[in-house]
Amino acid sequence: MGMDFSTLRTLISRYCVGEENWVDSRTIYIGHKEPPPGTEAFIQQRFPDNRILSSKYTFWNFVPKNMFEQFRRVANFYFLIIFLVQLIIDTPTSPITSGLPLFFVITVTSIKQGYEDWLRHKADNSVNQCPVHVVQHGKVVRKQSRKLRVGDVVFMKENETFPCDLILLSTSRDDGTCFVTTASLDGESSHKTLYAVQDTKAYNTEEEVDSIQATIECEQPQPDLYKFVGRINIYMDNEPVARPLGAENLLLRGATLKNTEYIYAVAIYTGMETKMALNYQSKTQKRSAVEKSMNAYLVVYLCILISKALINTLLKYVWQADSNRDEPWYNNRTDTERQRHIVVRAFTDFLAFMVLFNYIIPVSMYVTVEMQKFLGSYFIMWDDDMFDEELGERAVVNTSDLNEELGQVEYVFTDKTGTLTENNMEFIECCVDGHIYVADAICNGQVMPGATSMDMIDSSPGPGAREHEELFFRALCLCHTVQVKEEETVDGIKHGIHQGKSTSFYISSSPDEVALVEGMKRLGFTYLRLKDGHMEILNREDEIERFELLEVLTFDSVRRRMSVIVRSSTGELFLFCKGADSSIFPRVISGKVEEVRARVEHNAVEGLRTLCVAYRPLSPEQYTEVCHMLNGAKLALHDRDKRLAEAYDAIEKDLILLGATAVEDRLQEKAADTIESLHKAGMKVWVLTGDKMETAAATCYASKLFHRNTQILELTTKRTEEQSLHDVLFDLSRTVLRQHGGMARDSFSGLSGDCTDFGLIIDGATLSAVMRPAQEDSNSGNYKEIFLEICRNCSAVLCCRMAPLQKAQIVKLIKASEEHPITLAIGDGANDVSMILEAHVGIGIMGKEGRQAVRNSDYAIPKFKHLKKMLLVHGHYYYIRISELVQYFFYKNVCFIFPQFLYQFFCGFSQQPLFDTAYLTLYNISFTSLPILLYSLIEQHINVDILKKDPSLYRDIAKNSLLRWPIFIYWTLLGVYDAIVMFFGAYFLFDNTTFTSNGQLMTTNTQMMFGNWTFGTLVFTVLVFTVTFKLALDTHYWTWINHFVIWGSLVFFVVFSLLWGGIIWPFLNYQRMYYVFMQMLSSGPAWLSIILLITASLLPDVLKKVICRALWPTTTERIQSADKLYEGHLSEFTPLASLHAPSKAGGHRRGSGNQGNPRRSEPFRKKTMFTRWQKQPDYSTFTPLLRFADGHSKHAYNGGAGPETSV
């Protein structure tokens, strides 16, 4: 293991004791033993313990930290100020009116966030208290994982997960190797081989391991999973022997030991310094787009409030300029008031007006929003469609703050292994010289009777081809790096070869290889074992054949092939090579290339993973030359990889093609359907995976992320080696922009039928180069912008060989782009945690790779297919509901407080409230709160089935469309209009008044006593009825609960007013509202004015809705009208596309532009029913187009460009 350590030596030489805490390298004493005297100074460094922390609060900092986060919200901070003002100065209303709601909001939110963090603490503790075995004084002792220290020697058994980052000292295997799976780190569930230190691999007992005297010098922790540089100094007879350490010696936290009985290893990075923890993002508070809109609106209303208070304060002093008005005879000032400076008086008045009008800022909206989010999240958890019987799991909501964000997603970043796929490879077929073989031939869905383990679909090959066929099967049995594990089951008896057939099973670093070897087993050739340098296979005649394994030319992603050189028992030498078609075909000199190529292309279109197999017979002289080339390259210290690549290139040539294989990586159920639905909904889907490019690309085709007509753009290491990164980026940019006429496609516009569909593939190394900060002397500053420009114009992007932190960087890059799109990340392993935390919405899948992703996510679902309903149905509903809730709250508070502002012009700006204190306090808490809360929980503006069937409806709510400024201004103006109608309507209706004998105002025509409280109560009654009816008009989904709550809240208001004004008053010593409500209702004109004013207030909104629906209906409104026509059964009629507004030329959505040319993987389309709207907006004539007599319908059937669409 020759390695250049000049870099490390430089780093170590810079090490200075005590100069600074952070140094470039660390020294670890194995087993905490001092080195022999005289060798080097023993300086014990301090390292963190092995505790993992994912929670945000502790017991001590919860209150201050949580309070700080809560008062960062504009509304909470504002109400705290108002509450303090009410405590300090004499104000028109009681401090309780703002203090109580604020206390309620803060308490509810802190309880909710505290509970969520307590769950995280619980999860952390279960990990930190996990038992670990450590070697101490020659014995194995148990201790908790959190107590593990750097330098401890750890004893691990098979299937245990490593508690920290370790250097492998020795294993139960004689060759010093062990096998691990890193599924929770990089998503690969295949077995990887790691190597023990050569000088310590023979130490196999606790006593022997405890006797090791050694130190490890290595780099400080860094997040790259695939890099590690260090060396070990082993003291033998007081003389240190230095050995290099690399990534092949490093066991990472989170990886699992496989197919190895036990290992001994030393801890080098612990706790939050492990590579897995360094790949975690820190937890930050996520805020939804709706909440940001709410805060923006709040600032606007705050400005309105301040301007109202300023205007009133100014006008008060203009009014009081007349001394008679300033100090009338019935309201003389005290001496202290006269002596107070005018600035102080003005400021006090300003604050008093602020308090009087402060109800325009709806604190109760925050309470309602918190309750709506908390209660609404249970609908996801209770959804039976998102229950997985196989796992027995339901969807889980970890953070209810982001429910509405599910309806705003523009980019979906998904992991591949275990998220899109089940991670089960299955051998499908092989093709030898054009003849196709499948294991167990199937005819009409039935296994053919008497079928042997091998059947052929095509005609039988001749005797000459038989030899070729067997050579092909042998090639696949020999050209791999598969390990064999004997099954140990049934009463502990070891089972190996059973009745001439092996019952062992295979493990490998590549699941494809296992699938191929198992496929060969089903076709009659069984790989048995690698023993003493010989590979043994069992042929069809149950004879064991032995081949000496001479060389393995390992696979790498640039060559995209691997080879073995073997010697048969007869002494013949063969080079067997398998790899991607693009890397095999150019090296082939004979064989049935065209037949095999045709089959490979056919299988690739079907989304299968294909490999080609070839061979080359070698003469002894050629083999000697090959050995000389390989040994020269292996011993090189400089440019070893380059020299090996050149040697492999020279050896793997003049091949004879044998055939090809097809393997399927099973997609998760309905994964392709889900991705297609997300595309139709206007979302861009990116696959971010740690897997190989070929594997990932095949999955992308199978899951319909890439289509047959997708033009693939590659931005990979292979390409950047041929050209500079600068040139490659500009080439790709030109290609994309030329196609789109120099105009970047909007992320929500569809792909027209004649438009090339681009798909980008990028790997981790190239991404690092793109993301690298610009050097001052280079022109690389705009790489990120060019990369983003290319990505924007691609319908799908695949990022392979990604480190976990790179996944988060990609998400961050898109988040920070100029459009600031809403992102969603979904994954199932610890390697996905960073991107889950980085994205606006993080979703964990309850897969096979542990629960880290689920623990750190905002939502967790059992399978990828559940994402469709979560976004298209739940997300859609949550967004519709909360946007109505926010707009409605601002509207009803404008209606509530604007009459108060107008009233000041009629009461000498004396800060006299228009409404009674009870009404002021209960308006938002009781009279109008329940109807909107219920609306925001159960409203369904469109049927669930329609939302699932027509994903494009999701586009209607994209880009926060229901909380845009024009809509906000419309609601505000509507509120102002309603307030003016209520106030001046009541004022003019009761303008004709005279004094009664006892000094009260009385209307001449009704003999009704009319004081300021009667006037205020009349306005308030109209107000409560108007805002409640407005909500009733907006409700589409009526249930008995809606009826009960809406009409019940109006009844409650009437009953409360009667009780408050007539029955309870003697106990409260509270006389101003005595009999006011009853007196008002005893008047006929009062009833008439209430009805007239409610009608006048609601009329403009009703007219606007009717006109807009008739002339410019949205897709949603068309479907609502049609659904009413079909009494809720519209979803049974297909397609819904006929209800969409006719699209402009070239504006077809993805998936519908290519109907005349179906993909080969979809041989036929069912044509069931056609529906269309007639041209005039007559919603009662919804005609089925099953009569082909009509010219329009023929045109529709032939795929015309009208609104009709075939299914």
From TrEMBL:
Q: Catalytic center at which residues?
A: D415
Which residue stretches belong to region Disordered? 1140-1167
Which cell locations does it reside in? Cell membrane; Early endosome; Endoplasmic reticulum membrane; Membrane
Catalyzed reaction equations: ATP + H2O + phospholipidSide 1 = ADP + phosphate + phospholipidSide 2; a 1,2-diacyl-sn-glycero-3-phospho-L-serine(out) + ATP + H2O = a 1,2-diacyl-sn-glycero-3-phospho-L-serine(in) + ADP + phosphate + H(+); a 1,2-diacyl-sn-glycero-3-phosphoethanolamine(out) + ATP + H2O = a 1,2-diacyl-sn-glycero-3-phosphoethanolamine(in) + ADP + phosphate + H(+)
Q: Where is the P-type ATPase A domain?
A: 131-214
* InterPro entries associated with the record: ATPase_P-typ_cyto_dom_N, ATPase_P-typ_P_site, ATPase_P-typ_TM_dom_sf, ATPase_P-typ_transduc_dom_A_sf, ATPase_P-type_domA, HAD-like_sf, HAD_sf, P-type_ATPase_IV
Family that this chain belongs to: Belongs to the cation transport ATPase (P-type) (TC 3.A.3) family. Type IV subfamily.
- Self-association or partners: how does it assemble? Component of a P4-ATPase flippase complex which consists of a catalytic alpha subunit ATP11A and an accessory beta subunit TMEM30A.
| Protein name per Swiss-Prot or TrEMBL | Phospholipid-transporting ATPase
Instruction: Name the source organism.
Output: Pagothenia borchgrevinki
